[in-house]
Amino acid sequence: MKHTFYSLLPLFLLLDLVIPFLLAPTYPGYRHTRQVMSVLGNRSAPFHTVYTLWLLLLGTAILLASTQLCPLLRSRSGGLSLALAAILIIYALGGCILSGLFPVSETKAMETLSAKIHGFGSVFGFLALTFAPLVVALFYFKGRQTGLALCALACFLLALVFFVLFVMADKPRFAHTVIAWEGLWQRLTLLFMYLPLALLCARGAQ
Where are the transmembrane segments (predicted)? Predict the structure, then answer.
């Protein structure tokens, strides 16, 4: 059962990046580089219910992940275990479950209560998950697994850079520059936040 979990979590993380590419062709005018993934969950999107259900499922899977990954870290550091638990819970609730229950509008305008809850939930969720690679890096440094530690640390730095670009993307002064590619920066941020968690799963499956 434990080995099944460690195989499934990386699959869920991969699907989170792949599913938007499967749903986007049904939404005329959607652009992966310019639009965030959650736009596919707004009520104008043809398969918004599918994306909403996916976010709820992903959030539940990540909450379950905390019960497996955190004890793995506790073998070296109780503090790192608690930090990862907090990160995963905040992301699961804010970045996934609340974002699914309260969809954003098509333009991402913060005009409705739903859009505001979605916006604040996703910001706090993403901000928390940005530090997951750092926690994983410290875990591997403690175990003197330098190669894995440096890999996780590189993921943290890249995730931080892309998250900053993601935040800057919707600022008017960057509207006609490459920085405005909000969708691309979001996907790259998630990729580098997810990779260290997949590394942990590979260790847990051993």
Answer: 7-30, 50-70, 82-102, 122-141, 148-169, 184-202
